[in-house]
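Task: fold both queries, return tokens.
Query 1:
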Amino acid sequence: MASVFWLTLTGFVAIGFVSLASGSTTAERPVDLVIIYPEVREPFARVFEEIVRGAEEAYQQQVRRVSMADNQSPVDFVHVLDESSPVLVLGNRLARQVTENNAERRLIVGAVNSEYSSVFGITLIPDAKVIAKKLPVLVPDVKTVHIVTNPDNNLLDFDHAKTVLQQQGIVLSIHQAEDVRVAAGVYRDLMPTLGEQDAVWILPKGSFVNNAVLAILLQESWEQHFVVFSSNPIHVKRGALFSIYPNNYKMGLSLGRMAWDIAQGNSPQRQMQALEDVFVTVNERTSNHLGINLSEDIRSHIDLILPAR
């Protein structure tokens, strides 16, 4: 496992200046990976800890952690780093701040639900390949997946999603809405048309599902026997059939491998990649109500089952 250095912000900045002043080069020493992540409370701190731990394990040289409080900006800090060092930035706030001001850096972003055009990274949106693989196993009767989304949402490659789902005999139907008010009307008009062969996929961003919309959506799902699945595991506790969401440790491994490839001069084929490292959680009470038998074979594809009560 890579060595880890717990450093204060000021201490690490000092080291950065010494490194630059001494004129050290990549050939003279290993290329370190710097991981910048937000300083947050539990349970969110555990999420970032798991991602960082995975990245440390996958990266083959030294790894240095730097946590940032809300009132700290990483921008000036990144400027003093050796330009040969790749920088992994976690979380939307820090990723946005760093990418806007350090376009020349070897930047990788993770744990983000926004698209960045000038850096490498992995988003929190599950790759449609994962959906196409899991959906026929969990609910083989579903033939159409509906998404309500902002037309400006570029996190999901809709053409790619349509293609991979179509290969499984599933149609992706996209319903556009500019804001929460319009989306509520779209959901209201859509729900009466849905049945056992339909599923609604709630994306982590841009689906405009607040608590009120979710409650109505789940109630109609229960009555009309259509499937609701989400990228938010909390929705499963509320009654959604299943959720596909990040396996934080494995996502960290993927980010660490990506950083190592970039450090070696081998850029990934795609800059921003969809999430492939996932967990699957299923609500057994909902599956029973929808008449879905969780056989041993199906259970082998599930990481966590919320028991029927």
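Query 1 returned. Query 2:
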Amino acid sequence: MPTRALVLSLLVHVVVAADQAGGPAALTTVLQRAGERVERYFARAQSLVCLEVMKLQPLTPGWASEGFGRTVESELRLAWAPGSDGVPSAQAQTLRQVLRVNGHPPRKNDWNNCTTPEQESEEVQPISLLLPGNRSDYRFTSSGSTRFDGRAAISVDYELLKEAQVDVHMVEGRDDCVSFNLEGGLRGRILIDAETYDVLRLDQRLSGMVEIPLPKTATRRSGGPGSWTMERWDTSIRFKPVSFLNPDETLVLPVSTTSIRITRGSGTPRLRTSTDYKHYQRFLTGARIVGD
């Protein structure tokens, strides 16, 4: 398959579950308080903009860098709004506007421009899984306590109850670019601050290998197999406090993401993605009445 890279869009719809260590009541309380912190984060983050710097690097079977990597810089902002009757929406979307690719403005006909940031203008925030409307889609289990970045943390494992389903299509206007959405078939671990209940880290991986059937257009063009097999997709997101002035405020925000993906049969079978979120800016609005 001559595809240079693969567009990945993670659709996360979360759900509730079971409790083990610490008892059902204890875990339920942790999830409830963590969910409240996520709601606060989503509500405040709508006034934030940051720079996403994503580095995509193909790897050899020995995990060394192979060929030229790709750096994509984008402006990110969050879109989330409470639903009807004041009930929060089940998902928050990250909206992306690509600014530069390898240091220059994005060009439609760039070689190897079939990558997630260039083809996906929005994606679901993974920590949406902690919102009340999503928790019933997951099985949550306590996995003890630990320390992370110098903070006492509660460790919670989760598993999406829905089995993996894949929706595959060709990117419009590109006969060498395959995009797919993976829904279900995921599990991972969340580290939650034991004092504030903010999310400190979220890890996610496949529950098992996933078969990705290819569109007939792609198989006819390449003469290759009719499907790919995703063997591994590990993602880890780190969160840290970010301070703002005038007025003073500190929010726990994502600062980095790392991802390793192995897709047997694709044009880029092994890919490491490293993302930094930097230069957070907060925009506040206000108004006052001025007399004649």
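Both queries returned. Flag for query 2: The domain at 7-281 is CATH 2.50.20 (outer membrane lipoprotein receptor (LolB), chain A).
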